[in-house]
């Protein structure tokens, strides 16, 4: 889940949440419906009724975006990808899918199903609007038909990382067989699209449409950032895939016993060794990991009595990595569990620790030397 977001509920094993920026959009949409759309189309509507309808319209918009994202996540799950969370934020939603699709066909179907869901919602809303006599329902569903249609079309713009960009990337990927080159191409198209939005926004502003122009420019700016960061991400990933954990780890197999008092751990192990974390072992077997963040939770005056076993992480099972695994796999693991380091195990034997900082240093080296 994105930071600065609130978790709302869990659906089919997927955490659904909203980013704080969504609240601003929710307010803005409600306001524009309540003082704009409803009074204009239904003259004489009481203000209270207009606001209630505005809130209902915003909620239905929320549900629409959610269905779009659920379509991505559920298809991803059915295709064996790990879909963990959906966060709705200012420009729609993001589905947090762990790992990239292994095949172009998977990427294609996971990407295309979102816009398809939005088109279907647009069609259903138009159908409701056409078959109901109640004017308030008609107005609301005409509005939903329009925004869902717009949502589908916007997402089909072929710039990565929009859905259309992913579809485009999957097609290039299946033709060239080269994921990295396909991503570069799709992300560069994404940047072009972003510049287009920026230019269009500024033209609108020059035409005195300040709010609309600023909004379009912000979308362009956001798209540009997203395209650039996905490009960096892929370059990093390709770099990391060629390096093994064993090449980067600290080959230090020191373990501390769970009975060690924290003061002793700090004075005799962490400070002299300049380390942020140490594996914990019992009878030569790894049973956990004690880290700086475990220690800072204990007030300084209690560190003489508290022991490593009381605060260490991993009591529910230690996550480890093998020395022959690729760095990109290890970085995925670090990210997934929000760890700063992983113990590296060769079979039953601890051979060292892989720290996020070491991975970063290796990356900087490779970047500087361009290898
Ligand atoms: Zn989408």
Could you walk me through the main structural features you see in this protein, from its secondary elements to its overall organization?
- The chain is α+β, with helices and mostly antiparallel strands and 371 residues long.
- The protein has two domains: 237 residues, no CATH class; 125 residues, CBS-domain.
- 61% of the residues lie in helices and 15% in strands.
- It contains 13 helices and eight strands.
- Strand 3 and strand 4 form a beta hairpin.
- Helix 2 runs parallel beside helix 4 and helix 3 packs antiparallel against helix 4.
- The structure holds zinc ion.
- The site of zinc ion has 5 residues, from helix 2.
Distinct ligands, ions and cofactors found in the model: zinc ion
Mean pLDDT: 84
Task: Specify the number of helices.
Answer: 13
- Spatial separation of the terminal alpha carbons: 33 Å
Unreliable runs, pLDDT <50, ≥5 residues? none
Total domains: 2
- According to DSSP, the number of beta strands is 8
Question: What portion of residues is helical?
Answer: 55-70%
Q: Widest sheet: strand order?
A: 1-2-3-4
Order of helices and strands: EEHHEEHHHHHHHEEHHHEEH
Q: By helix and strand content, what is the structural category? A: alpha+beta
How can the largest sheet be summarized?
A: 4 strands, mixed
Beta fraction: 5-15%
Shape assignment: elongated
Question: What is the C-alpha radius of gyration, as a whole number of Å?
Answer: 26 Å
């Amino acid at each position: 889940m994105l930071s600065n977001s609130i978790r709302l509920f869990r659906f089919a094993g997927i955490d659904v949440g909203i980013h704080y920026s969504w609240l601003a959009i929710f307010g803005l949409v409600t306001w524009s419906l309540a003082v704009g759309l409803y009074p204009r189309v239904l003259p004489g509507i009481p203000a209270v009724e207009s606001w209630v309808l505005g809130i209902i319209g915003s909620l239905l918009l929320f549900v629409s975006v959610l269905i779009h994202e659920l379509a991505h996540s559920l298809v991803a799950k059915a295709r064996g990808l790990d879909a963990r969370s959906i966060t709705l934020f200012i420009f729609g939603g993001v589905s947090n899918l762990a790992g990239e699709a292994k095949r172009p066909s998977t990427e294609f179907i996971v990407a295309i199903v979102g816009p398809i869901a939005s088109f279907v919602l647009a069609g259903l809303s138009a159908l409701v609007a056409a078959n109901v006599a109640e004017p308030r329902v008609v107005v609301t569903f005409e509005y939903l038909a329009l925004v869902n249609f717009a949502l589908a079309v916007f997402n089909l713009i072929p710039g990565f990382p929009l859905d259309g960009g992913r579809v485009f990337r999957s097609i290039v990927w299946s033709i060239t067989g080269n994921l990295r080159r396909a991503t570069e191409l799709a992300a560069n198209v994404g940047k072009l699209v972003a510049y287009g939005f920026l230019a269009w926004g500024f033209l609108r502003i020059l035409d005195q449409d300040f709010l609309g122009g600023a909004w379009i420019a912000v979308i362009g700016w956001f798209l540009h950032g997203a395209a650039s960061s996905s490009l960096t991400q892929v370059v990093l990933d390709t770099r990391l895939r060629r390096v093994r954990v064993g090449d980067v780890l600290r080959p230090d197999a020191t373990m501390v016993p769970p009975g060690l008092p924290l003061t002793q751990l700090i004075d005799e192990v962490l400070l002299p060794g300049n380390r942020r974390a140490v594996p914990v072992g019992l009878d030569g077997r790894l049973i956990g990991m004690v880290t700086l963040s475990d220690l800072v939770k204990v007030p300084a005056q209690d560190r003489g009595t508290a022991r490593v076993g009381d605060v260490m992480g991993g009591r529910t099972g230690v996550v480890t990595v093998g020395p022959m695994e690729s760095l990109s796999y290890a970085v995925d693991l670090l990210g997934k569990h929000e760890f700063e380091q992983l113990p590296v195990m060769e079979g039953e034997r601890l051979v060292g620790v892989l720290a996020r900082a070491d991975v970063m240093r290796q990356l900087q080296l490779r970047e500087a030397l361009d290898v």
